[in-house]
Amino acid sequence: MFVTNLATITPSFIHIIGSYNNIIIESSYICNSYLLQIFYQ
Prior knowledge:
With 41 residues, the chain is mostly helical. The chain has one domain (4-36). Helix content is 95%, strand content 0%. The protein is built from 1 helix and no strands. It has one helix at 2-40.
């Protein structure tokens, strides 16, 4: 029972971590492009 629960929890957990990493990458990319716009103006 514990093994099957672990197997069902793990993919969603990895998915949450992947989504969180994508949010960090996108926000840092937006921040960098924003800073570049300020720098080049």
